[in-house]
Amino acid sequence: MTAPASPRQPLSWPSLLGRGLFFFALWLVLIGAAPKDWPVGLIAAAAATGASIPLWPPESRLSLTGLVRFVLRFLPQAMVAGFDVARRAFARRIAMKPGLVTYRASLRPGMAQGALCAVMSLQPGKLPVSCAASGDMRVHCLDSDASVTAELAADEAAFLRILPGDRSGA
Amino acid sequence: MMGLTDAFTLVCVVAGALLFLAGTVGLLRFPDTLSRLHALSKADNLGLGLIVLGLLPQQASPMGGVKLVCIWLLAQLSAATASQLIAGIAARRKPQA
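^ inputs. structure came back:
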């Protein structure tokens, strides 16, 4: 499926309604289904839908298979990350060589890169510190000796599979 | 006599609590601000994930389970975003951190 570089189109009413219903369902799950609370939930769902228009433009798409593969990769990594930190915290001597590594992301700056940074901060031994407009990311590592760049590239490649057609293009 | 689900809950929740402890110990022991953020964002998230996993079989209705998973996802999202914002400020204040 190719995504042509179309001009920004307004969100259609059915998809707006779909988003609103999704947010309302989320609200019902979190707060409970008592009818007297519904007015608040409807206002919250409307506000969330309004916020989603600039944050999640209609031309962005998600690849379901990419997402599943990403989650299957992400969950074990998040476990490794947690146990890695726990091992270091309980060690008799704190053995780490923290440092900053610069990584050039192929993703263009914006929402997608911000999301990538957030996901990367849950991966073992890495914490993105800043994302420059050029696509350069500064990543803080617990072990600056480890092969961080290759791991970051693999993380990004897995993340890109969720977003078909949303690459840097340049 | 403890059932299998109760044993599962016990193991997961105890492991989750230990990870929260590890995150706090890391926060106190790690050498600099950015390393401390690693401890908080990673150990606590896994700890919460394990506690949620352990509590899932105890839910009376599927709705309760979905709610727990939603709470975990929202906590992941906020922890990841907040730790990045703090990391950006910390790195700007002290570039060699």
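Chain A touches chain B through 32 residues (CB under 8 Å). The longest strand of chain A covers residues 99-104.
thumbs up if we can close this ticket
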